[in-house]
Design goal:
Blueprint (H helix, E strand, L loop, with lengths): L4 E7 L5 H13 L3 E8 L1 H11 L9 H6 L6 E3 L18 E7 L1 H9 L5 H11 L4 E5 L6 H12 L3 E2 L13 H15 L20
Parallel strand pairs: 1-2, 1-4, 2-3, 4-5, 5-6
The structure holds flavin mononucleotide (FMN).
């Protein structure tokens, strides 16, 4: 039987904390996943408070507060702790997603700056040739952003802007967020049964 997946989820201070919550919820529920490391930048903590109204006096409780239910698999690691397991390529980690990913965090990763746990863990994924998915959330994009997207792509990352699709007819914001999260997890080798799959067919008739 294959070993259970171990995934790192990094959250930065870009808008879109709902995407992080969806990814964490799906990972927590996925029986193929054994463990999730969760690291958030200082700006992410601010965004979690602004967008999800989640503020934790004890950061270790953040995963459960974000989920709104007990997080059994998700372990919070302080971003300042550059000595945490995921800072080393020897730690068992199958891949990492940064969701949402700020332009600043992408810039650090593109430049090889690894001065906190989140950027170090991302750097480790690149050097170990493990999947690294960056859910960039910024618009419009300046030249520096565009160049950094190419740099991280060339270094092995998947740039997956938080850019939802609409061809499957979402009815709610939750539908949009979940379908995006399913596609992110597919990139990490964890395809989800509930991901909408286009079956082809003629264009819809005009009324
Ligand atoms: C309410 C709010 C929304 C923000 N949204 C974005 C965003 O969508 N994309 C982005 O790149 N930065 C955004 N920022 C700015 C980042 O939080 C800021 O650049 C921060 O330094 C990023 O740090 P980090 O990459 O360590 O999380 C936002 C900031 C705030 C306060």
């Amino acid at each position: 039987m294959p070993r259970a997946h171990i995934v790192t989820v990094g959250v930065t201070g870009a808008s879109g904390a709902v995407y992080a919550r969806a990814v964490l919820r799906i990972l927590e529920a996925d029986p193929r996943v054994g463990r999730v490391f969760f690291v958030a930048s200082d700006a992410a903590l601010r965004l979690l408070a602004t967008e999800l109204r989640v503020v934790a006096a004890d950061a270790k409780k953040l995963p459960s507060m974000i989920l709104g239910a007990a997080a059994k698999k998700i372990e919070y690691l302080p971003n300042k702790d550059i000595g945490a397991s995921i800072a080393s390529g020897s730690a068992l980690v199958d891949g990492m997603v940064v969701v949402p990913c700020s332009a600043g965090a992408m810039g650090s990763i593109a430049a090889g700056v690894a001065d906190d746990l989140l950027t170090r863990a991302a750097d480790v994924c690149l050097k170990e040739r493990r999947p690294l998915v960056l859910c960039l959330r910024e618009t419009p994009l300046n030249r520096i952003h565009l160049e950094n997207m190419l740099r991280v792509h060339d270094a092995g990352a998947t740039v997956m802007p938080a850019m939802p699709a609409f061809y499957y007819g979402p009815k709610t914001i939750d539908d949009i967020v979940e379908q995006y999260a399913y596609r992110v997890l597919a990139q990490l080798g964890l395809p989800q049964q509930r991901q909408y799959r286009w079956k082809g067919g003629p264009p819809a008739k005009r009324a």
